[in-house]
Amino acid sequence: MNNRDGCLGASVRAPASARKPRALRSVFTKLVAIMVAMAAGLLLLVAGFFAFIVGPNLHSSIDELLRDYTRHLAATAPDLATAKERAARVNLHVRYEGPAGAWSTAPDMPTIDEIRRGAVAQRSAVLLNRNYYLVPGPDGGTYLFGWSLGNRMNQIHTALVALLLGVMIAVIVITYFTLRQLLQPLKRLNEGVDRLSAGELDVVVAESTHDEFGRLTEAFNRMVGRVQGMIAARDQLLLDVSHELRSPLTRMKVALELMPANPRRDGMAADVTEMERMIAELLELERLRSGRGLEIVRQDLMPILRDVVATFESTAPGVRIVAAKTEIFAAIDAEKVRTVFRNLLENAAKYARPESRPVEISVRQEDNTAVIRVTDDGPGIPESEIESVFEPFFRVDRSRSKNTGGYGLGLSICKRIMQAHGGDISLERNRRSGASFILTFPLEGAPGAP
Ligand code: ADP
Prior knowledge:
Elements: H1 22-25, H2 27-75, H3 80-90, E1 92-98, E2 101-104, H4 112-117, H5 125-128, E3 131-136, E4 142-147, H6 149-182, H7 184-197, H8 212-258, H9 263-289, E5 297-300, H10 301-312, E6 319-323, E7 329-332, H11 334-350, E8 359-366, E9 369-375, H12 398-404, H13 410-420, E10 424-429, E11 435-442
Parallel strand pairs: 6-8
Antiparallel strand pairs: 1-2, 1-4, 3-4, 5-7, 8-9, 9-11, 10-11
Bound molecules: adenosine-5'-diphosphate.
C-alpha cells in the first residue's frame, strides 16, 4: 500500500470470478485454451472426414477395382508360380482348388469351403480383416483371392492421425509464443494499472506497439497525467483556501476577544480554535508533501516512543510495549515522529471500546528497516476502506468520527511524515479484530534513508 496522494486507493470487493487461480483468469490462458480447442476440433474434423467420408469411398472403389482385377487374373488360369509373382506385386494372396489340384500362395489362406461356410471368423482376426473374392477359373476350378485392405487402411489412418497430432502440437507451440509476445503490452499495462491503483501517480507505461494496445497504453498514460493534474489542483485549492482562511479567522479571534464573556462566545471561540487547528494541519500536510520543514538528525527512536507511550499509559485502554529493541538509531525528525506515534495512540484511545485490552506496540529490526507495529483492540477498519484511510478528510464512519471529534487529517499527516523519512505506514486487520498500523523506518544504508 503506497497511497501517496489521493482518491485512487479505494479498494473494491473482488467479484466471485476473482477467486479462481490467477492463471485461469488471464486472457493469455483463455486465448491459448481457445487455440488448443480449435486445433483439437480441426483434428477431429479431418480425422472424421477421412474415417467416414474418404475411407468408405476409397474402400468401395478399391473393392470394385480388385473384383475386376481378380476376375481378369482368374481368366488367365494362373498356376502357383504365376499367382505368387502377380500376388506379391499387389499384396494379394491366392488359393486354387480344382481339377489342377489345390495350392495356396500363403499358408494361412482359408479353404474355399471355409469361406463359403463363413467360418473365417473362428480362425483369426487377421484373416477376418481381409477382403475375399471367389472367382471361377476357366478349367472349372475356383480361385480364392484375399487382400488385406482393412489393415492397409488402418495403417493409413494411424499415419494420418500422427501427422495431424504433430501439426497440432506445432500449432500450439507457435501460438503460445506468438500470443505471449503479442500480449506483452497488455501485461505492461496491467502492471501500470496495479501501480496506479496502489497510489503511484508517476507511473508511465512504455508504448511499444502502434495497434489497439498501443492506443490503449497512450490513453492510459494520458489519463494518469490528467489524474496527476487533478490531484495537484485539489492540493493547490486546499492550500489556497487554508491560506485565505487564516486572515478572517484571526479577525474573528480578535473580535471574540473583545466580546463580553458568555457561553456563546466560548462556544464560538472553541469553533474558531478548531478551525485554526484544521488549517494548521492542512498547511503542515502541504509543507510535508514538498519535503520542507523536516529537521533530520541521527538519533535513537526508542526514547521518543517511550515518552509518547508514557503520556497514554493512564488513558483507557492503556498501552504497553510488548517486544522492543533497546535502541534503534535512525535519521529522523524527532518532533514529526512523535506526532506519528501520538496520532496513532490518540486514534487507538479514541476508537477503543469499553472492553478493549491495552494497545500493544512491538519494535523489530528487519535487515535495514525498523518495523514498529501498533495493534489495538477496537472496532478496526473494514477491509474495503484500508486503502483510503490515509487520504485527507477520509473518515470510516462519519457519525463515529463526529462523536470522537476527528476530521480525517491525522493519518494522512502520518503518511506524509513517514514518506518524508523514506519509510511508510500501512494498515492491516489484526487477529484481535482491531487495527494494526505498521510503521517502517529505513535505517542507515537502506535505500531511501534520509
Ligand atoms: P480522525 O481525526 O478522524 O481520527 P484520522 O486520519 O486519524 O482522522 O483517521 C481516519 C479515520 O480512520 C478515522 O475517522 C477513523 O474512522 C479511522 N481510524 C483511524 N484509526 C483507527 C483505529 N485505531 N481504530 C478504528 N478506526 C480508526
